[in-house]
Amino acid sequence: MQELQKLAKMIADREKRALIFLLSENDSRFQLVCGRGATNKMDMRTLMQESLSLIDGKGGGNKTLAQGGGTASLTKEEFIRNVTNIIAKQIKSEEYTTLD
Question: How does pLDDT run across 1-12, given as a tens digit for each residue?
Answer without folding.
Answer: 899 999 999 999
